[in-house]
Amino acid sequence: MGFRFLIPSKKRSKPSSPLPADLPPIYRLSQDLILYLLESLPPPDAAAFALTSQAVWRALGGLPDFRKLVSQIDQGERRAFLSRLEQYYPNHVYCSQCIIFHKQDKKRYVCRPHPFGNEIFGDLTVRDVRFERLDIHVPFLKAKEIMNRHRYGEPHGCLPTVMDFNCRIRCLNFKHKEEYSDPPRYFSLTARSAHDKLLLRADVSVFIRPKDFEVNKSSVIVSSLYDSTHMQRPGGAWKSLLESFAGSNESTLFVRCSSCLAEMRCIVNTQKNQKYYEIRNTTWHNLGPCRDSFDRKWRTETEHCCDDSSNAISPAESFYLAHFDDKASSQLKIKQPPCWLSLYPKLCES
What we know:
Blueprint: H1 10-13, H2 31-40, H3 43-50, H4 54-60, H5 63-71, H6 75-85, E1 92-95, E2 100-103, E3 111-113, E4 128-131, E5 134-137, H7 140-152, E6 165-169, E7 172-173, E8 178-179, E9 185-194, E10 197-208, H8 210-215, H9 217-226, H10 237-246, E11 252-257, E12 263-269, E13 277-286, H11 296-302, E14 310-313
Antiparallel strand pairs: 1-2, 3-5, 4-5, 6-9, 7-8, 9-10, 10-13, 11-12, 11-14, 12-13
Helix pairs in contact: 2-3, 2-4, 3-6, 9-10
């Protein structure tokens, strides 16, 4: 009775059917020749070649030998190899830290309260756009889902609009547990995919009483914008430009960071017969193609490693202005930010 499992079944002993005549020529090559081709290729290319057809897959020896082949690939080449296959797994997302495919989790968060600073966990690197006590976090996996939809189609991700929101912020007096009498501030975030890159626009509208503005114009402009901009290094060239702008009669200033190419625009609206003056700051960030969290462009944006070299530019020189509707956050309808319940997934923590 125990030996019956050693007897081949009728299904196993059934002879294979002849190959159809319209198959590609590779099916007519001998297995020895296919193995020779596999051995002559670098491991990443050989693994990709093995997945092109069943003939090559059978010649290699199936899944066990394929796993041995993949194990010979170093981390950098393996990341490049697996990224080629991502479009064939719409229900999974490729993790360049674990170097495997994870099942897609729709509960990734984009926004969570302060105080959570920058944390880097490979593909879970966050991008902080800070304003007051609000931190907006864009996880790499969520950014990649957006770009995967842009590259591969609807089943592979989500629209950039999942990051769009506009909220009203009031300063809180934590000592007396009541709101300040200062006017409200508005903050909006908008995402767009263009030229195979993910672009973010953060817009802040700060309202100032005319009498407070006239007392010290330069100090009001700098203090209103300094904590909400991307280029935050003390003593940076952009700050000198901002101070010069505050002392002039100009109403608009464009600044570009020469390191990451992020742009900042400051608009001061001091029209008469207004209850408040509006100081509006808009920043544009280029997160790159978001294929790999180890990409230099993504690292530059997430680690805030910009240098002090920033230059004033004209509106016509802006890289990003044409990709967004230029509406102030104070003029947009209130839309609360999406909050994904889960924080950092345990599967990628190191």
